[in-house]
Specification:
Elements lengths: L1 E3 L1 E4 L2 E2 L4 E3 L15 E3 L2 E3 L4 E8 L7 E7 L1 H11 L9 E3 L2 E4 L11 E8 L1 H11 L5
Antiparallel strand pairs: 1-4, 2-3, 2-11, 5-6, 5-9, 7-8, 8-11, 9-10
Length: 135
C-alpha cells in the first residue's frame, strides 16, 4: 500500500515523499525493550521521554505516533541523520517496517512524528509500547 509518510518536527510536519508502509501490526508479542529502530539503530525506552498517539489534523481518521527523545535518544537521532538527507529512514517496530520516509532536511529537535495511515488502535498500541515507564 502506498501512503504519504511524514516525520514531523514538533507540531509542524515536514513534507516527505510517499513511500511504502504497513498499517497492520502484530502487537500481541510482549518484549522488554521498546522494539524501535531507525535504519537499524535501536532505540530503547531510555532513549525516549515520551511516546503518544495523535490524530492528523488534515486527514481525519488517520493517526500518528509522536516521539520525544531523551538526551541519549536525541544524540543517536542527530548522528543518524547526518548523511541521510534525501535518503529513506527505515523505521521499524518489533522488526516490522512501519514507515520509510525520505528525510527532506535535518530535524533539529528531540520531537518527531511518524505518520502513515495508522488506525487509532495501532497508534495507541505502538505509543503505549514505546512509552518508558517512569517510577
Amino acid at each position: 500500500m502506498r501512503t504519504g509518510i511524514a516525520i514531523g518536527l514538533g507540531l509542524s510536519i515536514l513534507s516527505l515523499a510517499s513511500c511504502q508502509s504497513t498499517s497492520t501490526l502484530d502487537m500481541e508479542q510482549k518484549q522488554v525493550h521498546s522494539g524501535l529502530s531507525i535504519n537499524d539503530i535501536s532505540f530503547s525506552t531510555d532513549d525516549l521521554i515520551k511516546a503518544y498517539p495523535g490524530s492528523e489534523k488534515y486527514n481525519p481518521g488517520r493517526y500518528f505516533i509522536a516521539l520525544i527523545f531523551s538526551e541519549s535518544g536525541e544524540m543517536k537521532f542527530q548522528k543518524l541523520q547526518r548523511d541521510m538527507v534525501g535518503k529513506p529512514l527505515t523505521i521499524k517496530f518489533d522488526a516490522k517496517i512501519i514507515s520509510s520516509p525520505i528525510l527532506v532536511e535535518i530535524i533539529p529537535d528531540n520531537e518527531v512524528q511518524i505518520s502513515g495511515g495508522f488506525t487509532e488502535e495501532e497508534a495507541q498500541r505502538i505509543a503505549g509500547r514505546l512509552s518508558p515507564t517512569k517510577n
